[in-house]
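Exam revision sheet. Question 4 asks you to relate a sequence to its structure. Input first:
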Amino acid sequence: MIRFHQVTLRYPTGYEALKRVSFSLPKGSFHFLTGHSGAGKSTVLRMIYRAALPTEGSVMVDGRNVAQLTRRQLPALRRGIGVIFQDFKLLYDRSVFDNVALAMEVAGHDPARIPGQVRRALQNVGLLERMHQNPISLSGGEQQRLAIARATVNRPPLVIADEPTGNLDKEMGRHIIALFDALHQQGTTLLVATHDLDLAAETGHPCIAMRDGELIHTPVFSDDDPGESP
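Answer key, structure tokens:
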């Protein structure tokens, strides 16, 4: 589903945000991406939905080299990826309900199905009673849960999350991971970036560890990986 092959991201200053990163995630898998702040986790996630491009190497998503997609092909890639941003990226001129509904509208869902599915997504993250409020009235943790509902309401085949439990207490963090587990059981591929090693360890899912732009541990990649060619 996802394959990084010798990916380096070098800025004009010469700083390397990623250094020869290689890993492969099978379709339907659930992995955590761990490491300290600045380790390169967010950069890896941004490359998956082509918010950043490698200086060297290749990033493959569902058999497609993302760097080679045309501008017309890019929306189709992104519609298949549920992205949970660290800074939420909510729309504060719309209600909680409308923030989630918009994700379904953009994806072209039947309008008749949208209200029920949005309510279920909000109920899953404990926000159904807040659906008519503006996101600005929510706490940081509630806004994070709203971002999770928006990213997962369409049941995309791939969900990537940047510190999705970072503003939540342990109990709600475990609840969110349980939601991810339910998606995983239905076949969704998940890659979740976190610095919470204890929470990641509790789940039993494999971890890919990063430090200073490099992988220091991955359980799934070898240079002989038979996945898609760059």
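Marking note for examiners. The longest strand covers residues 16-25.
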